[in-house]
Every structure is written in C-alpha cells, then in structure tokens.
Amino acid sequence: MDRQTISRLAHAHHPIAAPIADESVAGLLARATGHTETGRALDLGCGEGGWLIRALAARPRWQAVGVDLDAAALTRAREVALALGVERRIGLHHLDAQEFKAVEPFDLVLNVGATHAFGGLLPTLAAAREHLAPGGLVMVGEGFWEREPGQAALDGLGAERDDFADLATTTDRVIADGWTPVYGYVSSIQEWDDYEFSWTGSLAAWALDHPDHPDAAAAREAADRHRAEWLHGYRGTLGFVTYLLRRD
C-alpha cells in the first residue's frame, strides 16, 4: 500500500493533516483572513483542501488555489468543494508544489505540516515568499522538540536530532530569516492524542471493514506500527506550532 493511500485512509475522520482541533483551525483561519473581505489564498501541499475549503466557506469573496501531488486527495477536495458550493472559487493543481508558478500574488500562503515538500521550514518560507502579495500572511505549521528526544522518539519518527529544534530556537530562526510572527498556536497534548488515535484508528477500521482487500493486512500493520511508534516513542516529545507570519 503506497504512502498516499495510507495517509488518505488515515485522515478519513481528521481531514486537517496536523494535530489541530476543528475550533483551532477555525480560529487560525479567522485571524489569517479576517483582515480583508476579499483575498486570494494558496496552499502549497493542500491534500484534500481542508484549510482552503473552510476558508472559502467562511469568506464568500475569497478565492483559493491548492497544489498537491496526490491526485486522489485532489479529487476528494473537488467533491467536498462541490458539496459546499465553493467549487467555482477554488483551483486545484496536480503538481509538485516546488514547480507551481503563479500569475498573481496571494494574500495568504499556507503550508501546514508539509514543509518536507521543500526540504524544511526555511526553504518553505523562501518558496512562500515568492507567491506572497505585499502585506500578505504566511501560515506555516512545523514540528519542534517539546523536550530532548530520546532514541525511541527518533526511531519512531525516523528522524535525526537536528531535524527539529525547540520552540524558542525554531521561532528565532524564523525571525532571523526576516519574518515577524503575528500569531502562533501550539497544539495541545489532547490535540495530538486525538489526531494520532484518529489516524491509526481510521486506518485500522478500514482494514477491519475490508478483510478481503489485498491491502487489508498492510493497512492494519501500518496502523499498529504507527500507534506503537507514537505511544512508545515520540508522544510528549514532538510538538507542533502553527505560525502566522508577515515579512519585515
């Protein structure tokens, strides 16, 4: 079973692919879009379009563009956009986010939990800067170390110690790169637990509901492995922060 399919099944009940609760998503989007009645948003790694579709539903005069390599996720995004009546205000591109070229700048550029697409946080911000209108905002979500990671945490994440820093250092790096945090949201342990139990539970439930599917065993194994890596490895060690940033 390929990674994109696993992720899509795992996010069936948690379409925001990050440890952020619905009410927190709504609050972040209100801050990000509330400064103007009309605007344009771009999500570089949109998946099923959860951030953009919610933004459009709340802001009837906004337009949006999403870019992602997962064709099935984009299909799902189109279905949800159609069901909510915002399909005419969103454009979805099956494309590597690094290759996307915009004709016009955007008032809001998002990348939440997908900085790996650009090779890390600062390269992601460099890419976002190329698409950002003067005075616009970037919303970026990134991991950080809540505490010094042990080997179990590193093994569970398939990470190296230097892949992340603590929250203070991460924020300092963003500021040194020429950005000002105008807001930041740190996900709670409750949000992490809900996200991880939803991720592993949705995938395991799919396997139980489709016992004769050729990928059922692989899905169940992936869910069990991920749950163990989280509970016995990085729970309470890896944090997640979502910044709203403006250029200096």
From TrEMBL:
Keywords: Methyltransferase, Transferase. Coiled coil: none annotated. SUPFAM superfamilies: S-adenosyl-L-methionine-dependent methyltransferases. Its EC number is 2.1.1.-. The keyword Transferase applies. One of its GO terms (molecular function) is methyltransferase activity. Residues 42-137 form the Methyltransferase type domain. One of its GO terms (biological process) is methylation. The keyword Methyltransferase applies. It is an enzyme of class 2 (transferase). PANTHER family: CYCLOPROPANE-FATTY-ACYL-PHOSPHOLIPID SYNTHASE, FATTY ACID C-METHYL TRANSFERASE. This is SAM-dependent methyltransferase. It comes from Kitasatospora aburaviensis.
